Each structure stands twice: as structure tokens, then as C-alpha cells.
Amino acid sequence: MNPTDALGPELQRQPSGPSLEDALRDRLDAAFWRAPALALFGALLLVSLTLLLERQPGSQIAIWFTDAFGVVLLLCCRPAARVAVLAGLMGGTLAAGLLGGRPDLMLAWMPGHLMATAAGAWMLQGVAQRQQIGSSPAVLAQVGLVAVLLPALLSASLSLPLLMLTSAALPAMPVTMIWLNQALGGVIGSLVLLPLLLAALAQPWPSPAPERPDRRRSNADTLVLMLAGAGVTVLALLHLVHPFVYIALPLMIGAVLLDFLRLQLLVLGVTLVFGAMVATGLVAEPPTTARWQEVLLHLSLVVMLLPELLLSAAVGASRERRLALEAQRERYRQLYERTPAMMHSIGPDGRMLAVSRLWLERLGYDERDVIGRPSTDFLDADSRRRAIEQVLPQFLRTGECRDVEYRMLARDGRPVDVLLSATSERDAQGRFLRSLAVLEDVTRKRLAEQLAAEHQRTAAMLECIGDAVIGIDARGRLRSLNPAAVAMTGWTLEEARGRDWAGWLSRRGVADDEPAPPDPVALCLAHRTRPEPTSCRLVRRDASWRVVREIVLPMSAPGGQGFDGVVLTLQDMTAAHDLARTLAHRAHHDALTGLPNRLLLQDRLQQALRLARRQHQPLALMFMDLDHFKQINDRHGHDAGDELLKAVAQRVRGAVRASDTVCRLGGDEFVVLLPQIEAALDAERVARHILSEVSRPYRLGALPELHVSFSIGIAVFPEDGEDEATLMRRADTAMYQAKREGRNALRFHQRGDTDLTPT
């Protein structure tokens, strides 16, 4: 499955930082007078605009913007200031009525509109996702219902009785027409202004700067469409039949090309042009009777605006989801590349599509050298043939594979053993699209498996030794012990018979910090099945312990009727356990000096290099060779030479830090690994200290005083190499150069040095 398919519909891009609503709320909260003052001047301006857009004196058709403005202002101010805001709205409305010569009309309208404004703000608070009005048709519809339609109906219903009581303000038309005109005016004004204000308040504040090219292009598109919308509105209303069809065209184009906020600006412009033409009498009323012309004209405007707003919100939702999916896809790509595991993906043609950073690091490649190449290019000959003939055909057929053993080749030719597990992604028709493979580097694990296999072989040989056999009845009580069991546990048969097994012997984990494994005898008694063999430390009666292997078999009663008990066989694995620890030590250490050998050096050098790369810190590798050691061997014998090597090893080990590694490669060759140094000067200081310590006289038994010295070659990561092979080769070259230059000296690898042989 594509990772983006898992995204839920709730995934939305949220603006970073505070929004304009937060900034406005902070400004209004800073001083109590700001909110009512803004309400006063805003209502004065918007009510004056409403009066200018009236068709004629006595008409109730007016685009009423003040409710939407009041709703938004009540949302942004603190609760204590809301009464003052309503008072400001009332004052601005009355002032506009006085200036426009219609105070009686404003007095009749004002109570209903104030209550509708308060109700709309209260209901809009329950729309938790109102900031997503431009990217969710559902939110837009919810806002339209609770803050546009219901408040408009409420204001019309509350204003109608006052209009009927005020004969001077009551126009000569039916009551139903008055109510419908009032409701339409509120719907148009709030439908145009409220989404615009809510979309603006959801914008981040301050606006991101500098302005992006796509934002500048969107501003230009908005200006062009506003001019086109105004022109089309004028021409359509004056000269065309069915004008709203033509007016809707630039709005529909804007819904597709512009974001919701800019579309609302376009809608506002078209609405103002429409209102101005109605107010000046330039628009021909629809041919009907009973004064329904004005209602039909403005109802047509509402019907035209609603689809464009919903289309814009739907386009915005699609745009937001696409951007969110792209961002999520980019996060998945980065996560894939940065995951600390070796991973790669191949396409249907078997070529590499993607690869993780650890894959590149382990094999030493750059991404540009890998992408597009067949995955088999990175395998050795045997693995490549098996992949082409067996693994890939089966994988393309079944869609998965597990723990396939491959040998890969690093860029420097170094073999890397891996276990590959993969799964596939397919399309709806079942066609293979790509794979996701995870590779486990088991190069070092192979060595551990060899040691474990050797331990198992040793354990198999020890099975020939007489084992302890203990019989336990179905109730868990001791029944019998053979002589080997008596010798192993320290209990005689007479003392042990009848004892409860659970409290008889103490069992512990094989390692000191390891808990005891589950008791196989208790498992067999409970489930009456044969458990897997386990190993533990068995504490004997005298408090000494032995490492044993526990093998449990259930016994059937005579004739096979029922469960009769358990036979426990204890194989003494103490010698095998000790031998395995010894073998593990010998596999990594020099037998003569006890120093780490070449194998352990390589492992520690690999770990030190990985740490140095991560921490961007140098390390040093020193190759050291004893000067004239052959003469001491020839003069005093090999035994004396061995004693001298052990003494030299002890002095070198005492001259370095505990975190450094001193290794004997063989003969009189030693290597010192200095991880986590600050600079090459640290390596030089350690090397001179080693030269000083080693050059002190040696007194070995009856031998005369011996004197030796070192020739030391030093290579530093990353200046002299970034992989273990290069560092070892260049340190060796520098050592031989030091021998040529007089011995008893140290020398760093220098550019231009070539491989040398000892002289």
C-alpha cells in the first residue's frame, strides 16, 4: 500500500505561527475601548453603505453587511467587552440612519439585527473548525447555516413587528414581502462578508515575507478576475438575457484558480457592482407581478453565489490535501533514507529506485552511483546467479521473501554478508510496482555463529560423559537418582527421595546477570508435553554450582495409561561453558602477550571509524616494529625473545589510555589504535611516550641488560584514509619509512609515500 493512502481525511495543513484572529484579539484585549470603538465606526461605515445600496426610498431590499461584521468582532473580543461592542454597533447604526435620513428605519431594524448578531456569534463559537472555512465545504455549510441563514431569519422575524408599529417606516407592500426582503438582505450581506472575514482571520500573522512568486501571480489573477467580473456584471445586467449565467463565469473561474480568500474579494466586488446598479435603477426587474421582482433579483444573486463558494471550498480542500500528501510523501522519503537500517527498493525491471543512507555507508557508494542500476550489480557471482535464477522470479510471483542470504560487494571489493527480507507494492490490478527490502549485515555475526557452532560441537562431545538422571513422579516428588546425579547434586538417594522438586535444588541463569530460565520440570508437569532443553547453573548442596543442560521427558504409566511423571537428565556442561569462554577469548587475543589480535583490532577499528564519522572526530592508527629484534633472538634464543615481547607489550599497554587498543599482529609487529583524539598532535605525544617507555633497559632473569626501540608509522583519519584498509596500509608504509630514516623514530604518513619493504 502506498504510504499516503493511510492518511485520514482530517489531515490539513495548518498555518504556522499565530493567526490574524489571535493578533486582533490581542490588540482588542490590550485596551477596553478599542472593541466598542471599532464596532461604532465599522457599523457606521457598513450601514451607510447599505443605505447607499437601497433601491429607492421606502424599499426594504438592502445588502446588510453589519451582522457579519458584528459576529466576527464579538468572536475576537473578550466576553467582558461584548456588551460594549453591541452598544457600539447600535450607536454606529443610529448614526448612519441619522446621516442617511432614515432614523426611523434604523430604529425598527436595529433590535432584531443586534439580537441576530449576538446569536450568530454564540452559535459560531460552537463551530470548532471555522478557520478551515476555505478548505472544507462542510464547515462552509455549517457556518452558512448558524451564522448566515439563521441570524438573517431571526433578524427579519424580530424586526417585522417593529416595522409594522412604525407606520412611517413601513413600505406599501405585503407583510410576507417585507419579511422576505429583510431576510434576503441579511443573507446576502453575511454570505458575502462573513466568509471573507473568517478566511482573513485564519491567515498567519504577520504574513510570510518575502512574498513568494506564486503568491504574486495569484494577486495578479485576482485583479484580472475582479476587473473581468465587474465588466461582465455590468454588461450582463444591462444587455443580456439571463445575466446571472454570465456573471457566474468569472466567479467559477476564480473558484478554480484562486484561493478562498481571494475568491471572496472577487465575490464582494461583484456584489457591490450589482448593488450599485440596483440602487441606481440600471437593472431591469424580472417580469412578474405582486412586487416579487426585487425578491427574485436578489434571490438569483444568492443562488448564483452559493455554488461558487462551495466549489471554492471544495477546490481548497483538494488543494490542501494534495499539499499535505506531498509533504507527507516527502517526510516518508526522508524517513526512508535516514532510517538506521540497510534498505533499498527496486522496480519491475529490477533496477534500484531508492536506497537508505546506511546502505550507502556500509557499501561505500554514492546515491548517484546506485540509482538506476540493477540490484544484482552489487552481489558477488554466486549470489547474483542465485538471485537471477531463483530469488527474483519467486519474489515477483509471491511478492515477498525472507532471510535470503546474499554476499554483497562493497565499492572497495570488500565482501558484506547480508540477510535480505523484502515485500512488494502492487497496483489495483496486481501488477508489481516496487519492492521494499531490508538487509541485515551479518558479516560479524558469521564469526559469532562459528564460535557458537564450536561450542555446540564441544557440548556434543561432552554428552558421552555420564549424565545425571533424576526420576520425578506425577506429583512433582523425587523418585530416583542415579550415581551421577548423587555426585552432581551432593544429595544421597535416601535423603532426596520424597522431597518436592520445586524446593529441592536452586537454579540460576548461566550468566551472572541473567535470570533463571523457566523450569522445564514444572512445565512438563503442568502441560505433560516435552519442553525444549534448557541450560542453567545448578547450585549443589555445598553451595557450589555446575552449568548443566536440562533435558526433560514425560513418562507414561505402564501400559500407556495416563501420565506417570518426568525423567530429568542433567548433562554437566561446566567444562564446555568454560571452554567456550576460553575459546572466545583466544579467538580475539594473542596467545603470547594476551593482547588483542588482528581480528579484534579490525572489529574495534570498524567501530571507531563509525563513531569518528558520526562525531566528525579524528583517530590515529600506529604501526610499530621492534628494531633489531632478530639480533636478540639470534643471540639469546627464542625464549628470551618471547619474554622480551611480553615485557614490551606490558610497557606499551601502560603507555596508552584504557580506551585505546594495543594489538600484536605477529612477530615483533604491534599496532595501537587511538580513537577519539582531538588532533594529530595527540597521536605524536602518545607515540613519543611509547618510544620513551620501550627504550628503557630490560632485565630479564639472568640475561644481560637488553635495549630495544620502535619504528612507528602513524596514519590519521580522515586525512590519510576513511576506511580501515587504507589506514592500515598507510600506517604500515609510514613505519617502513621510519625504519629507513634511522629507526627509533616515529613518522606520519605523507603524500607521495609509496609502499616500502623493510630493509
TrEMBL record:
Residues 402-454 form the PAC domain. Gene3D superfamilies: 3.30.70.270, PAS domain. SMART domains: GGDEF, PAC, PAS. GO terms for cellular component: plasma membrane. Residues 328-399, 454-499 form the PAS domain. It holds the Pfam family PAS_4. PROSITE patterns: GGDEF, PAC, PAS. Residues 1-20 are annotated as: Disordered. It is a multi-pass membrane protein. It is found in: Cell membrane. Residues 617-751 form the GGDEF domain. The keyword Thylakoid does not apply. GO terms for molecular function: catalytic activity. Keywords: Cell membrane, Membrane, Transmembrane, Transmembrane helix. The chain crosses the membrane at residues 31-53, 83-100, 106-127, 139-163, 183-202, 223-249, 261-283, 295-315. NCBIfam families: GGDEF (TIGR00254), sensory_box (TIGR00229). This is Diguanylate cyclase (GGDEF)-like protein/PAS domain S-box-containing protein. It comes from Sphaerotilus sulfidivorans. The lineage of its organism: Bacteria, Pseudomonadati, Pseudomonadota, Betaproteobacteria, Burkholderiales.
